[in-house]
Amino acid sequence: MGLLSDRLKSLLGGARSHANAGLAVNGGSAPRRIARAATKETVETRQSRGLDQFFGSFRNETGLSILDLGGACQDNVNFITSLGHKFYSEDFLRIFNETFGDDVADQSNPGRIDFFLRKSLEYPDEHFDGVLAWDALEYMEPALLVAAAERLFRILKPKGYLLAIFHSAERKQMAPCYTFRIQDLKTLQVCQYGERAASQQLFNNRSLEKLFQKFESVKFFLARDSLREVIVRK
Amino acid sequence: MSVWNKQRREEEPSRPLNTNPVRPAPQAPPMEAKKEATTLSSMSNMPAGRMEPETSRGGSATIGKAVKIAGQIYSREDLYVDGDVEGTIELMDHKLTIGPNGKVHAGIKAREVVALGSIQGNVEASERIDIRKDAKLVGDIKTARIVIEDGAYFKGSIDIVKTEPKVAPSQPRQQPASAPAAVSAAAASAADAKR
To answer: Rounded CA gap, A192 and A180, in Å?
Structure first.
């Protein structure tokens, strides 16, 4: 009976995997995936060719719908609305963290993936002209990553653009957390505020092309310190 | 106890209403003060027998953290909500503050909105909206100006609506624009009279 109800929850509401359910029952004392505020923020300003390309493609257009997956940030709100666009905000990583916590296995559970996508990317098909995904996709395990890329493809309009950033050129246990603040068309302020468990995936041009294979084009900008900016067009 | 109350009641009618607006309002009898301590604080400032809220800017109503309201709230003074509200809140020319304990599940229309607690619903703030650190807002925003502190949670869309600059009263073409305002003011006063 218990097994049956677990199964039903998994299908309908996205039940946690057994490992994670155990954690929750035992008081949920597992460390948070993001270690925030304990360390000082470090701020760096850098040129971003990806950003330039992203907004360059919308030049002379206003009233577009732009989704920012990095949560609400004053700089980004000001910049995007000053261009005459409508700003949409999703705190993608916060929802990711609340949904999966430290449980990597849970990211392969179809019910949980569906639950997560309903919480974070529940929008009509072809709703957005542009999506700023920043580094949100970098921390996901393969099953979830593919599902998220699929959903992003659906909510983007044809000829819409997506900007994503991938840091990891090598496998690491922990990866820094960042917020990305737009300063102008070509300049990003990158604030590092802690660390999170890194995905064990390797992101190179080939794997990213495979991930975004449904999109019409994928363009890479390799910057210093192994940062890879990716612009994909639907 | 009853003798004291009786004496006070006899005194009250002889006191003229609104003698001096700057003077602090007379203290309500102890029984009434007890009843309203956790609910609508602005009511305690009003003279007895007059339930209409003040229209002055200084006036402000408070919904305390132990209060839960379901329905429509329409106010002609600033409002501070630290309790639970479900329904709609309209403060057309006034400021709404959702306190840190406030949980609002409502559509909001106000001149200015400051969020420190939780809001679920669409917000229209004609002048500005301020979403403070630790606040949570899920809904679509229409406003002229927005301030979001780091750490605030926001899910939804932001539409910046440029407000038209107010035309000086000496200009002749202002007259047709002011007509609807007069109508709405009349409607508001009619609604007040009904109440």
So the answer is: 9
